[in-house]
């Protein structure tokens, strides 16, 4: 096991003891991270067939390197990863997980279709369609696992083009690799440079500190942030123009490098708070 993963698992254990109500989610994440490392290691090829000659032009024009709304790549490895990820779901929702595995086995359910639907649809719409609490829970975990099934493959792309992205001075609030919006970011270095994080491909990209990632608002009067007493290392940056928010982690005083997958889950109470304040 890589040292970074070991450290992350230690952090997860620590958070679990501090906030037992996050126990189940952190358990799930823990299992995912272990499996993710395994799949990252045995990844055989670049499934996205990125056209090198177009990368620079795309980035300069504000277009992400990969278009996730067009699933036209080979999904056999992500599918294999997904089936293994379903073991994690099987422990929590055995019947549903079993049903999906059976349907994938018999060809009754097409994995590509599952991925396509997930990336084509708006998650909140889906949640509203379902009245039953437990259904929402199941659906969310499933969506989470579908997204995770592409993560190692996207992560290899974000690793490969991190340099090109930095050179391109990407200034958009969505991810330059896969186009998804950030939920969390980080302040780094002495100057407190801000980085946004993409949960879908693991990329961190530099972004203007005083700017809303979602609407581009740079007016200080309508940009604000709040934090919880005693938890000043976390804050919620809000935009009063578009009413959206993004969480920000500042671990500079702790001299630690946060794992933002973990921090995103460990700060779900901030999402609840932002939601209560009317931010999306
Ligand atoms: Zn991304
Ligand atoms: Zn905004």
Topology, pairings included?
Elements: H1 3-18, H2 23-42, H3 52-60, H4 76-92, H5 94-106, H6 111-120, H7 123-129, H8 133-167, E1 184-188, E2 193-197, E3 204-206, E4 223-226, E5 234-239, E6 244-249, H9 260-266, H10 268-276
The structure holds zinc ion (2 copies).
Residues 175, 177-178, 180, 198, 200-201, 203 line the site of one zinc ion (ZN).
Helix coverage percent: 40-55%
Spans of at least 5 consecutive residues whose pLDDT stays below 50 are: 124-131
Q: Kindly name the structural category.
A: alpha+beta
Task: Summarize the helix and strand pattern as letters.
Answer: HHHHHHHHEEEEEEHH
Structural write-up:
The structure is a single chain. The protein contains ten helices and six strands, in the order H-H-H-H-H-H-H-H-E-E-E-E-E-E-H-H. It is an alpha+beta fold and 280 residues long. It starts with a helix and ends with a helix. It folds into two domains: 43-167, no CATH class; 184-276, no CATH class. One zinc ion is lined by residues 212, 214-215, 217, 239, 241-242, 244.
